[in-house]
Q: What sequence folds into this?
RNA sequence: GCGGGGAUCGCCUAGCUUGGUAGGGCGUGGGAUUGCUAAUCCCAUGUCAGCAAUGACUCGUGGGUUCAAAUCCCUCUCCCCGCGCCA
C-alpha cells in the first residue's frame, strides 16, 4: 500500500512507476474512488454530527421530564439516511481498498529500468570459479551416486519437486542452518522460529493478492496459509503495533521451512533439488526507521555476502531491473552463486527494501516520544540462506576427482570435523 | 472437546447490573508556578476527513435490537482457570 497523499497530490510519480514496471493498473479508478470516498466521508460525518446532536437533545429532554417524541421522528429519518449513505460508502471503500492493495511499490531511483532480467545490472563478482581437470557432474548425478537424495520415492509419496534428503546431506543441511544461525546471532540479530502457518490477514500484509494463487498453499477449511518464507510471519509479527523508536532497528533472523506452489514454473529446473516445494531458509528481516532503510539494505546485503565468502562460494551481486523486481519491493539485490554443474550463476539470495509498503498494510508504526505523531516504519528482508540451493552449489563446486564432496571449512566443526562426503 | 471467567487509548484500570457526551492513573512531551534532598498544577499523547477552525470514528471481530449500544441479544477469534484428550 502506498501513501494516499502521493496518489492524491503527485499521481505522476505513480504513473512513472507503473510504466517502469510495465504493470497494467487502473490508476484512474483508484484516484476516482479515492475522491468519491473522501466526499462520502465528509457527507456521512456531517450527518453523524446531526445525529449526535439530536441524541443529546433527546437525553436532555428526558432528563427534564419532557416528551422527546417530536425529535424522535426526525432522528429516525436521519438514521435511515445514514444507513443508506454508509452502505454506499462501504461499496466505494471496497473498490478503493481492492485497488490500493494491488498497486505495486514505488521504485528507488537507482534501479535500472527495463522489461525483464536482461536489464539487470551486475554490481560485482566475488571468488574464483573452480577449474576442474576431470569430468564433472551435476548435483543430481553426484547425490545419487553417494546416496544423498531420493527423488523417485519423493515423487511417489508427495509428487514432483519434493525430495528425501539422506545420510550426510541431512547433516550438511543441518550444519548450514546451525552455522547460519550462529553467524547472525553474532551480528546481534534476534533469532526467531515463527509459525509455519499464518492467517489470511497476516499473509495479505506481506504479499500482493496475485501471489496467493501462484505460491501460497492454503489449509483446507481453515483460515491458515503455509508460509512461503519466514518473512511473511515476521512482517506480520508487529502488525497493529506502535513501536518505541529507541528499539529500532529490529533485526530478526527467522528460521523456518518454506512452502511454495511454484505454479508458474512448469518445466523450469524440473530435476533435482534446485526448485522445490519445500526447503529450509534463514531469513534476515529488519524493521527500520525510514531514514535508515537504505543503509540497512546495504548492510543486509553485506551480511549475506560475508556469509558466502566464509563458505568459499563464488558469487555475483545483481541489481534487479524494474521489470524483474517483485511488486512489494522498491529495490532488490540478488546474489547468484556459481553452480559448477550448470556452468552458470544461479539465484540464491534476494535482498529487498520494501520502504513503508508492508508497514502500511500491516499498520506497523513507531514513534520516539508518546506525544509525537506515529509514523510508518520501513521493512527489509533478505535471504541469508535457502539451504537446498546452497547444497546444490556445494555439491557441484566442491566435487572431487574421486567422486566425493569436500565440506567447506566453516561447516566441518558442525559435522564432527568430517572433511568430505 | 466440556464448564467457568475475560478482551476498554503505548501500559494499568473505571464504566456493563439499570442503554443517553468513555472517566481516572502510569509513562512520555510541552508549559506554568514555587525553589532546602524536589513538589504541585495545566495542556498534549489512537484513526479518518479538512488548508484550518472543526467534525467524525474507535471499548477483540462481524451482525442484530433501539431514536440512541462499551452497556442488551447472537456469531466468530483470542486469552485465563478447571476438567478431558494428547507428542
A:
Amino acid at each position: 500500500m502506498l501513501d494516499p497523499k502521493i496518489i492524491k497530490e503527485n499521481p505522476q510519480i505513480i504513473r512513472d512507476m507503473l510504466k517502469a514496471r510495465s504493470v497494467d493498473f487502473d490508476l484512474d479508478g483508484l484516484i476516482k474512488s479515492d475522491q468519491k470516498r473522501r466526499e462520502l466521508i465528509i457527507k456521512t460525518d456531517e450527518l453523524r454530527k446531526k445525529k449526535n446532536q439530536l441524541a443529546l437533545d433527546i437525553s436532555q429532554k428526558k432528563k427534564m421530564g419532557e416528551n422527546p417524541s417530536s425529535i424522535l421522528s426526525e432522528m429516525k429519518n436521519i438514521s435511515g439516511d445514514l444507513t443508506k449513505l454508509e452502505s454506499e460508502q462501504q461499496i466505494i471503500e471496497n473498490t478503493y481498498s481492492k485497488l490500493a492493495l494491488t498497486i505495486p511499490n514505488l521504485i528507488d531511483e537507482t534501479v535500472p529500468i527495463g522489461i525483464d532480467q536482461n536489464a539487470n545490472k551486475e554490481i560485482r563478482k566475488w571468488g574464483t570459479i573452480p577449474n576442474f581437470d576431470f569430468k564433472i557432474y551435476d548435483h543430481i548425478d553426484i547425490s545419487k551416486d553417494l546416496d544423498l537424495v531420493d527423488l523417485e520415492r519423493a515423487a511417489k509419496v508427495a509428487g514432483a519437486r519434493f525430495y528425501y534428503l539422506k545420510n550426510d546431506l541431512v547433516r550438511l543441511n543441518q550444519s548450514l542452518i546451525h552455522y547460519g544461525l550462529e553467524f547472525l546471532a553474532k551480528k546481534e540479530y534476534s533469532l526467531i522460529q515463527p509459525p509455519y502457518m499464518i492467517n489470511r490477514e497476516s499473509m495479505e500484509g506481506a504479499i500482493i493478492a496475485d501471489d496467493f494463487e501462484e505460491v501460497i498453499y492454503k489449509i483446507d477449511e481453515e483460515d491458515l496459509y503455509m508460509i512461503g518464507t519466514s518473512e511473511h510471519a515476521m512482517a506480520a509479527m508487529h502488525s497493529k503495533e506502535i513501536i518505541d523508536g529507541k528499539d529500532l532497528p529490529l533485526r530478526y533472523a527467522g528460521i523456518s521451512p518454506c512452502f511454495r506452489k511454484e505454479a508458474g514454473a512448469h518445466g523450469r529446473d524440473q530435476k533435482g533439488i534446485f526448485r522445490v516445494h519445500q526447503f529450509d531458509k534463514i531469513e534476515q528481516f529488519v524493521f527500520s526507521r525510514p531514514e535508515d532503510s537504505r543503509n540497512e539494505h546495504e548492510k543486509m546485503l553485506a551480511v549475506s555476502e560475508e556469509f558466502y565468502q566464509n563458505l568459499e562460494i563464488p558469487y555475483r551481486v545483481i541489481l534487479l531491473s524494474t521489470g524483474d523486481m517483485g511488486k512489494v519491493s522498491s529495490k532488490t539485490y540478488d546474489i547468484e552463486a556459481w553452480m559448477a554443474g550448470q556452468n552458470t550463476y544461479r539465484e540464491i539470495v534476494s535482498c529487498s527494501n520494501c520502504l513503508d509498503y508492508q508497514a502500511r498494510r500491516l499498520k506497523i508504526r513507531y514513534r520516539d516520544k508518546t506525544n509525537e505523531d506515529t509514523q510508518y516504519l520501513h521493512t527489509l528482508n533478505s535471504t541469508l540462506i535457502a539451504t537446498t540451493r546452497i547444497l546444490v552449489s556445494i555439491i557441484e563446486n566442491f566435487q572431487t576427482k574421486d567422486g566425493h564432496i569436500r565440506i567447506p571449512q566453516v561447516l566441518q566443526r558442525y559435522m564432527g570435523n568430517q572433511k568430505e562426503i
About this structure: Residues 27-64 of chain A form the longest helix (38 residues). The longest strand of chain A covers residues 278-288.
